[in-house]
Amino acid sequence: MKKISTLLICSLITISCSKNKEEEMLHEYQKEKVTKINFNIDDLDFDIKSLTKLNDIKAKDSMTYFKNKLTDYYKVANSEKDTLSFNYVITELDNLANSYQELILLRAKAGKSYLNYEDKENRNKAIKEKVYVESWKDQYEKYEKQPELVLSTKYKANYTILNPMLNNAKQTFEKYFYTNSNQTKFIIEEDIK
Predict the structure, then answer these.
(1) How confident is the model at residue 159 (pLDDT cuts 50, 70, 90)?
(2) Nearest CA to 188 among 7, 16, 30, 63?
(3) C-alpha to C-alpha distance for 89 and 82, rounded to whole angstroms
(4) From 47's CA, which of 7, 74, 77, 80 has a CA 20 to 30 Å away?
């Protein structure tokens, strides 16, 4: 009986002291980060004070992001934002690139190719921007198929770590961390402003 109770107490202590999945993910993220600069996470007294799940980032959030990116790029009046489409902007950029190309060819035929430098740059800029808008459209359409799909989860973490560059001064950090879509690891951090 004494052995069973001792074993039970040890098991409870081990379980209560072990890290949960999210804490383990943060530990692994920081471990990878400090290993890149030739430090060992265990030597830095890494200690998580709090780790709070804030919200899931869903595909519909990214759809809003890409739609806002489009309206910011094309600079339309507020009343036109809802009707602005990716296809319209792509067509306009295509027309612009073609217009510059026609002008370049006309000047070349007239023997004035030396005037084409700026128009070639503008044509190339329009083509490049069209490619960006097409990629935004592709992402938007991909997310439109599954708007509730969780792409990432945002956490707020507060942790301490010894900084060997500052004579092992204990520093406290508070940052946002984002998971991958599988919720298996943190992939990026963001300073809290």
Answers:
(1) very high
(2) 30
(3) 13
(4) 7
